[in-house]
Design a protein that fits this description.
- The complex is a heterodimer of chains A (about 375) and B (about 120).
- Chain A has a two-stranded antiparallel sheet with strand order 1-2.
- Chain A is an all-alpha fold.
- Chain A has helices at about 1-20, 30-35, 45-60, 80-85, 95-105, 110-115, 120-140, 150-170, 175-190, 195-205, 210-215, 230-250, 255-265, 270-285, 290-300, 305-315, 320-335, 335-350, 355-365, and strands at about 215, 220.
- In chain A, helix 1 (about 1-20) packs antiparallel against helix 8 (about 150-170), helix 3 (about 45-60) packs parallel to helix 9 and helix 10 runs antiparallel to helix 12.
- Chain B has one domain (about 1-110): Alpha-Beta Plaits, CATH 3.30.70.
- In chain B, strand 3 (about 50-55) and strand 4 (about 60-65) form a beta hairpin.
- In chain B, the strands form 2 sheets. A 4-stranded antiparallel β-sheet of chain B has the order 2-5-1-6. Chain B has a two-stranded antiparallel ribbon with strand order 3-4.
- In chain B, about 25% of the residues lie in helices and about 30% in strands.
- Chain B is of the alpha+beta class and about 120 residues long.
- The relative contact order of chain B is 0.32.
- Chain B starts with a strand and ends in a 10-residue tail after the last strand.
- Classes of the chains: A mainly alpha (about 375), B alpha+beta (about 120).
- At the A-B interface, loops of A face helix 2 of B.
Chain lengths: ~375, ~120
């Protein structure tokens, strides 16, 4: 069931960025899946460098300024907010937004970003210089957007940070720390925006499960995770950020809702009824069938697997792999062995990572 | 900075409008010209009037029809002087073709030094 949950997290980052413009995508996670395979990296070196960089961020020092981007040699550290809105301007391609943000505010070198996105350093260098050239040639403003533009532009910034976090998930703690560092920076710079705290809370709460989620290369579903391996400090920090968000405005946006769900799931005894209600609200806000899939998971966990299966079968998600793994799990719980077997086999064919494959194969063997 | 706002209406979208609607949309287009930031613009005649000139096989060719054989064709343009891309994009978003299903491409102009400008 955890597979479907991860899916919402991944796909939402794209949904937040694209769906309002493009409508429902054919393959919501294709972008991340394409970049999420076979990550070969020099972990030790990266972790050491990133630790230093993250510490820099946390110590409230500028990781970089627009200066490093050769855009304006007069910028000063206090202009980080302007900088992030420039880097995440919608006139830039999303992959360029991500790269610029990591370069200018995440403190990564071009080579490190290239490694994270599995492209050559040359390619990343070109991507960055094309983006910088466009900023300059088209006069993308180095400014905090006017109030009437702010909601859309802030959503773009948050989507970029969440995309970085999801790129890191589930096995790239270094990049996740960087995304959380960016989240903290945003919270410091925009202390009155509930969604900023919502995103920070969401990332902290999800990251708190990192150690428990993949054990010996095996993906462990939330229900089976060793909760003593959850990072309590991150859970508490996440909840503090969530409370801050909820105190700012009663009407909850998509990140606040997701953080609230993650907070409920951090409890020893998860109140699945409440989780289902929150997913329903999230579904209304996002219109996303991936969120609806997660609602179905919560409904099943709350004790209504038949109702959950009805929900799943009403979704139009095609060959979206988590649809099939969720369906298979529901059929298994309902004791419909043969249908479950077919669904697990289908899901296995669609699986994109080794931990997923092993998880599904284990389920299949246990039928 | 000067920006060209290249207008690509959804094919047929303006022709489908009722008479009153057409008048009010036309008035909207004209209103853009009143904006002090607007440096000019044009509404092109339909694509059936296009003639393309090229050079090929050692001779000048004059051919009936548009250069690119695409469904979406340039219907007109404005040139705006805006302080940055956001300002130009806001103008572009108000162009009626956008809400009628078409699109506007925003391109900055190459800066021409004053002394060589005609």
């Amino acid at each position: 069931m955890d597979l479907a949950e991860e899916a919402a997290q991944e796909a939402f980052a794209i949904a937040a960025e694209r769906w309002p413009r493009d409508g429902l995508p054919q393959h919501p996670v294709a972008w991340l899946v394409a970049t999420g395979r076979n990550r070969a990296i020099d972990r030790v070196r990266r972790e050491r460098t990133l630790e230093d960089k993250t510490r820099l961020l946390e110590a409230d020092q500028p990781a970089a300024t627009m200066d490093e981007l050769d855009l304006d040699d007069s910028t000063i550290p206090d202009e980080r907010l302007e900088l992030i809105f420039t880097c995440c301007h919608p006139a830039l391609a999303v992959d360029a937004q991500v790269a610029l943000t990591l370069r200018a505010l995440g403190g990564l070198t071009t080579g490190e970003i290239a490694l994270a996105f599995l492209v050559s350093e040359q390619t990343m260098k070109r991507r960055l210089s094309r983006a910088k050239a466009k900023i300059k040639a088209t006069a993308i403003p180095f400014a905090v957007p006017a109030d009437r533009l702010l909601p859309d532009r802030l959503a773009a910034v948050l989507a970029v940070v969440y995309l970085i976090f999801n790129q890191a998930y589930p096995d790239r703690g270094d990049l996740a720390a960087n995304a959380i560092g960016l989240g903290r920076l945003l919270a410091e710079l925009m202390a009155d925006e509930p969604e900023v705290y919502g995103l920070l809370a969401l990332m902290l709460l999800h990251d708190s499960r990192r150690e428990a989620r993949v054990v010996d290369g095996q993906l462990v579903p939330l229900a089976e995770q060793d909760r003593s391996r959850h990072d309590r400090a991150k859970v508490e920090a996440g909840r503090a950020a969530l409370e801050r968000a909820l105190a700012l405005r009663p009407a909850a946006g998509p990140y606040v809702l997701q953080a609230a769900i993650a907070s409920l799931q951090a409890e020893e005894e998860v109140e699945w009824d409440e989780v289902a209600v929150l997913y329903e609200r999230l579904e209304r806000v996002t219109g996303s069938p991936v969120v609806a899939l997660n609602r179905a998971v919560a409904v099943a966990e709350a004790g209504a697997p038949e109702r959950a299966l009805e929900l799943v079968d009403s979704l139009e998600l095609g060959d979206y792999r988590y649809l099939h793994s969720t369906r298979a799990e529901l059929l298994r719980r309902l004791g419909r062995q043969e249908e479950a077997r077919a669904a697990f086999e289908h899901a296995l064919r669609l699986a994109a990572t080794d931990p997923e494959r092993r998880f599904l194969a284990r389920r299949l063997a246990g039928l | 900075m000067k920006y060209a706002l290249l207008i690509y209406p959804k094919p047929g979208s303006h022709e489908e409008l009722g008479e009153d609607e057409y008048k009010s949309v036309s008035a909207e287009y004209w209103a853009f010209r009143e904006d002090p930031r607007c440096l000019g613009g044009a509404h092109l005649q339909p694509i059936e009037t296009a003639t393309t000139v090229r050079y090929g096989g050692g001779e000048d060719l004059i051919i009936d029809g548009p250069y690119a054989d695409t469904k979406e064709v340039l219907g007109g343009y404005f040139v705006f002087d805006a302080s940055n891309l956001d300002e130009a994009l806001e103008v572009a978003q108000r162009i009626p073709a956008v809400r009628l299903g078409g699109a506007v491409e925003v391109r900055p102009l190459v800066e021409v030094p004053v002394e060589t400008a005609h």
